Structures are given as structure tokens and as C-alpha cells.
Amino acid sequence: MSKTSSDDQQRHAVYVCRQPYIVRRELGRGKTSSVFKGLDVTANYFPVAIKEFHISRHDPNAWESYANEIQLLTHLQSTNRVVRLKSYEYKPKFGRAYIVMELGTPLRRYLKEDEPIEEPYRRLFWTKMIDALASLHVTGIIHGDIKPDNFLLDAFGQLKIIDFVPPGQYGVVYRQRGTRNYLSPEVAATSKPFYTHKVDIWAMGCILYEMTYGFSPFRDIEKTIDKIDAIKNPYHQIPVSPDTDPWLLDLLTHLLDRNPITRYSIDDIQKHPYTTIRIRLNGKPNQLKAVERKKDIKGRISCSETLARRNLLLDDIKIAVIAGLSVGLLLIATVIAIIIFLLKKRLAKLNASRIGEGFTDTEETVVIDSEIGTSTVAVAASADSEL
């Protein structure tokens, strides 16, 4: 599959576990796979993401990436913090493997160069990202390539993690993985690093820095070798603004600590005041509204990015809905119980009435029968006397 100039018009179908999907356009490409926007034919053409791996016996990396991602996605489906897995299949005859997942908007789309995200929204994004990463670390899983492209915003405003790569397990030595601007010092220092969860923490610090200032900590260093040296060098100062919020600056300092031993853990981040302080947007807690993009110098306007659909409440609306449903179900159950009680009471009265009528009919029958019997005896007696 390849991207064309008219990719929205030129389509073709692929079958994953015998289910048809229409492939529309390419969304991204890596070393071992490509991601496409697709449509689920059996689900009324609902949009999905289709990840295609080119599997070759000469390149074990593709198979390793595919198998690792399937294993982790399957294991983490219950957390609701990773992208939802719909289907997957390996087709050895064609040297292809497919993963079908839910489609969303990458966080990268909301990070414009030299345009910091405003504080309420930045903090809200941050808390959601930390919740997602914590769902991995609590199970002992290392992502290994944390960056804005690998956080997905779904239709309900929830941030989810995508694109898992090795290392995966704590402390296992692999070849160097990750993206340069988010590479931790201990990974940059050697081609066969000893991974811990702290590599993800460093990358999270780089993302928070980028959301704060509008650029990554090492953006100004162009050459790759110089960038790697700067990341490893403890004497290279990462620039910060003196106007930065003190709590935010304190958190950045602990996240971008070149010593992985003293660098914050996910628990430390969750307890930090910058993460724990509850924010209010326009008088409502945890409400994501549109992040308006200003006109640039050339007068072009970037489209207004609506985060999680305008005026959509995140956690609060979920709690309200669940509470409302619970109260509603309780009321319905109460009404049904009352109706059943009244019906039983009415039926009991009807049964009692019918039983009473039955007794009256029996008594009348007995009286009539006795009268007939008495008359018969009297007639028989008179007849005998006459004889």
C-alpha cells in the first residue's frame, strides 16, 4: 500500500480475520510498518486505524514489533488507557500482518511550534497523560518511545497510548530505541542500554517542556551527534523562562534529571502539586474547550482544534451519567415493585370474591335439594296410607 496524490478517492479493501476494511489514506510510516486510515465495512463504515507490517525472514524486527504490540495491546485492553484493539491477523503467504485499532487524533496535532499551550489546558493534558502512563508502569511495562505522536485523543476526550515497541519488560537490554528529541541520557549513552521506567519519565518531561515553551528542550541543536552529546552532558543547561510557574519549574527539574536514580517516578509525579491541583476551566472542572489558533504572520488561520468535542466534560460527566443511570434504574425498580404489589393485592381481592360466591351457590343447591327430598318423602308417605 502506498500513499497517492488522491488518496481519499483511490481506495482498496483488505480482509482481517475475514472482515472487510476499506483503506483510504496513509497517516504515518515507520521502519517496519505503516498506518492507514480505514473504514470498517461491517460497522457501517466506521473510521478505524489499520497498521500494516511488512514481515520478512530477512528482517526479524518487523515480526518482533508486530508480536510485541499485539501482546501488550491484548494485555492492556482492560485499562481503558491504551488504544482499543479491534482485530489482527498475520498472513504469511503475502508477508503482511495487520492490526485494526480505534482511530483518534494524535496529541502532536495540538502542539504547534513556538505556540505554548495555555496553562489550564496544558495541566489538563498533563494529568491525562500521566494517568495513561501510570496504567503501563503499574503493570511493569515500559513504553520505550513516549512522544506526542504516541498519545491519541479519542472522541470522548480521553488520552490513550499507542505504538508500543520493545523494551516492554523492566531491565531487559535491547538495541537503542526511541525518538531523538525525547531520548533519555541513559539510552543515548550506549547502543545497548539497560532500560527502566525512567526512560518514559524523561520523555514525559520533554513533552511537558514542549507544551510549556512551544519547542523541545534540544530543538536548537541540529546535528544528531551534537544533540545526543547535549542530552548526555550533565553540564549542558536546558533553558527555562524565569516567569515559569514555580511548581511547574520544580516538576520539570525532577523530570529532566539526567540521573535516572534520582529522577522522579510515576508515583512522584502523581503526588506533585502541579499534577494534583484540580483546575477549573470557565467555572467547570476538567472541561476541555477548543484551543483557538491565532493568525500567523501571513494571515493564514490554522483551524480551531476542538479537544474532545466542545464543552465535553471528562471525568465529571462520566460520574454524572453513571449516577443518573443508577438513580433512574432505582426509580424504575421501585415503580415496578409498587405495580406488582398493587396487582397482587387486586388479584387477591378478586380471588376472595370468587370463593365467596362459590360458597353461596353451594348453600342454595343444598337447600333446594333438601326441599325436593322432603316433598318426595311426603308424597310417598301419603301414597302408602291410601293403599
TrEMBL record:
SMART domains: S_TKc (SM00220). Residues 21-275 form the Protein kinase domain. The keyword Nucleotide-binding applies. One of its GO terms (cellular component) is nucleus. It holds the Pfam family Pkinase. ATP binds at residue 51. Gene3D superfamilies: Phosphorylase Kinase, domain 1, Transferase(Phosphotransferase) domain 1. One of its GO terms (molecular function) is protein serine/threonine/tyrosine kinase activity. Keywords: ATP-binding, Kinase, Membrane, Nucleotide-binding, Serine/threonine-protein kinase, Transferase, Transmembrane, Transmembrane helix. GO terms for biological process: chromosome segregation; meiotic spindle assembly checkpoint signaling; mitotic spindle assembly checkpoint signaling; protein localization to kinetochore. The keyword Transmembrane helix applies. The chain crosses the membrane at residues 319-343. It comes from the Eukaryota. Belongs to the protein kinase superfamily. This is Protein kinase domain-containing protein. It comes from Didymodactylos carnosus. The lineage of its organism: Eukaryota, Metazoa, Spiralia, Gnathifera, Rotifera.
